[in-house]
Automatic annotation (TrEMBL):
Gene3D superfamilies xref list: Carboxypeptidase-like, regulatory domain
Keywords: Signal
Pfam families found in the cross-reference section: DUF4382 (PF14321)
TM region positions: none
Full protein name: DUF4382 domain-containing protein
Segments forming domain DUF4382: 30-162
Superkingdom, natural source: Bacteria
Signal peptide coordinates: 1-20
Amino acid sequence: MVKSRIVLLVISLFSFWAWSCTPDDPSPKALVNVFLVDAPASWDSVIVELEGVELEIIAANRAGQLESIVIPYELADKKVDVSQLVAGVSLPIGRKEIALGTLTGIKLRLGTSHQLFQGEKGYSLPVPNQETEFPANISLELQAGISYDIYVDLDLERSIQVFKSSPLELSFQPQIAAFSTIDQGQIQGILSPTTLSPVIYAIQGSDSLSTQINGSGTFLFRLNPGTYTLFFDPKDERYAPTTRSGISVEKGKVTTLERITFSTN
């Protein structure tokens, strides 16, 4: 049911939104499309209440003045299973034509009702002080007539804290990052066996990003250009972790790895 909800959301959103021009404002604009993706954690499902995003822009025609532009999440059902947004799947939050300038920041706007599911059992995910806005930095020059895809990456692994294991008590402090695909490349591949729920880490220096596989074993990273080491943690002691080093990411290109199979211990 959760997966079908995501598919319906994507279809509905792309059917609903269209590029619209404002006839009484002939000034040049850029189109900004905002998507939600997930750096997943080891939970079956995490449902968040999504309200939209807020962009912070220094408009080219406003002499350095900072402006805030809200892009709402338009669907009536605001509950989104972000743990399904892996292996290249993303959820369109919204789109808007924006006057030219520099995009300097973005805030993810959430509601106050969030849940985590492990198996069939659900747990409340309270946010400290009932915060609803979560910022990330981004730097992007908007140029006339260009469509920009902006991704908001919600890192569930770092966002969810376990205070007590029995009974399970949790806290939710959303940690996000934002990036544009214009200057990035991708790493993709397939892991076996597909019955596992491994975590894959892309490591560069002291920084790392994580992701998981979908039902067919596929994973995908969107990364800045550079050289990375991938560490594959099977999260199952019957199998041994493995590493791939020296993987090059180039701007605008996809690096596809040969199928990776975990060895048994």
